[in-house]
Amino acid sequence: MLCMVQGDLTVLTLDHALTASKTGTLSGIAYVITSSLIKVNNQWATIWLTGLLVMLSDIIVHPTHFGANWLEAACTGLGAAILCYLLERKKNG
Fold first, then answer.
1. Whole-angstrom Cα distance, residue 53 to residue 33?
2. Range 40-49 contact pairs with CB under 8 angstroms and sequence separation of 24 or more
3. pLDDT tens track for 12-43
4. pLDDT tens digits for range 58-84
5. Cα separation values, 63 from 2, 9, 54, 80, Å
6. Which residues contact 76 (CB under 8 A, 6 or more apart)?
7. Residue 81 phi/psi, 5° resolution?
8. For residue 67, what is the DSSP state?
9. How many angstroms separate the CA atoms of 67 and 64, rounded?
10. What's the pTM value of the predicted model, to 2 decimals?
11. Residue 93 in 3-state DSSP?
């Protein structure tokens, strides 16, 4: 949600929370389905898949607010992939 408002917490609304929840839920469901169909046992595959599924979910959930119709979703997916990397790094020491 922080990225949605470009860091300005004073403009956060319930609508931002709902949009972020929809994107996260759709991404989570897609990840569970995808990981049950293919075996993901590589840290980098997990990070890449997370970023890709978040990007696709973001495209589906709401229209872009800047740039090309995929650019905002790509930024969101990149942010999710970075968070996934940081969590994987912490988990693996």
1. 11
2. 43/88, 43/92, 46/84, 46/88, 47/81, 47/84, 47/85, 47/88, 48/81
3. 889 988 988 999 999 999 999 998 899 888 89
4. 999 988 777 788 888 898 899 999 999
5. 18, 21, 14, 18
6. 3, 23, 54, 55, 58
7. -65, -40
8. S
9. 8
10. 0.86
11. coil
